[in-house]
Amino acid sequence: MEPISATPTGHGTLHRLLDAELAFSPSIQGVFSSHLAMALVALRQLGATDAVLQRAFEVSARGSEPRDDRAELDRRLGEISRDGIAATVATRVADLVDAPGTALFHPVIRLAYALDVGHAGQVAAAVLDWGRRLHELPTNRPTVGTRRLTDVAADLSGRPAGTWSHTFDLDGVARRPEVRDALQEVAMDEHTLDDISSFAISAHLAANDFITLHLVTGARAVRSLSTWLEEELATRLAAATVPVMAVAYAAVEAPPLLDSATLDALREMRLPSRARIAELATADRDPHVIKLADVALAEERRTADPLYRYAAARVVGLVPRATEFVGS
Predict the structure, then answer these.
(1) pLDDT tens by residue, 164-201
(2) DSSP-assigned states of every residue in 265-326
(3) Fewest CB within 10 angstroms: 60, 256, 280, 281, which?
(4) Between 13-21 and 50-61, two packed helices, what is the crossing angle to 10 degrees?
(5) What tens digit of pLDDT does each residue of 267-283 get?
(6) Sequence ranges of the domains in the chain
């Protein structure tokens, strides 16, 4: 299966900075994720200049921790040098694919960005980080049926008031019997990746939350990574992503998804240009803003769905949140 972006974009400033970034740990205090590598690629894809990339690197580098696994990283780089990026990813991801939500999708997002620009060092670093922090949520895999993620969301959001509270304890949410029950008879088929993507953007528009932001960027990363995998592994990756989406949605209190009339109204808004959104995103210091804007604009290109342009405009502050628009 051909990857979405198999050709390196060049060895200029971006690749030089990605090389330098390998001196830093992919995590902070072993818990929080460093966003530097991801932000650099996202900035470039948004059209940022070399000067903007350099400044972003210098600002982020001041708060980064040194890498403590350089020897292992060098061994992984040796693998890639010997076998190539595609073969190494296929081999290594086979042991990781059942835990795509590790560290709120950050290792998968980093890997997808590394693959986008063909940077061997960042591919090695992302796979290594995914393995070191590997964590599969303690929930049962969905039983296979015909229900879609929107049906799961309706089940979770339809619970009595007070059932859910906002939390970052995704393990605790995953153990809830309500989540287990909602994940019964979910469809696992050729539409699952599309289901994941559409659910992620719908959940984020409803919640406008830090956690659901990662569902949108994570869904894009899962889709990108899938193109590098054989069908069996890609199917496992999609299946393992479904419960992560459901758990994260419950963790933001499972707000009802916006109805079709509201979504259509958002699509019909007069939205800012892609260039204006990119301009504001590349000037922002928050890597979450940068990454969501980049991913949302990329997904708009892929799907032609204006909801993604709306989400990108929202994250840079050009439009009100969806619930405010609905009430106006």
Answers:
(1) 999 999 999 999 999 999 999 999 999 999 999 999 99
(2) HHHTS-PPPHHHHHHHHHH-S-HHHHHHHHHHHHHHHHH--HHHHHHHHHHTTSS--HHHHH
(3) 256
(4) 10
(5) 999 999 999 999 999 99
(6) 13-132, 144-251, 260-327
Structure-block tokens of residue 286: 């928050």
Residue 3's pLDDT is 34
pLDDT in tens, 291-310: 999 999 999 999 999 999 99
Rounded CA separation 35/33 (Å): 6
Which amino acid is it at 192?
Answer: T
Nearest one of 38, 110, 32, 121 to 73, comparing CA atoms: 121
Please give the average per-residue pLDDT across 227-246, as a whole number. 97
Alpha-carbon separation of residue 181 from 141, 142, 156, 174, 237 (angstroms): 11, 9, 9, 11, 21
Q: How far is CA 102 from the centre of its chain?
A: 11
Q: What is the pLDDT of residue 102?
A: 97
Bridge-based pairing of strands 27-28 and 144-147 is unpaired
Q: Round to whole Å and give the CA distance between 313 and 309.
A: 6
Strand partners, 186: 147
pTM greater than the 0.90 cutoff: yes
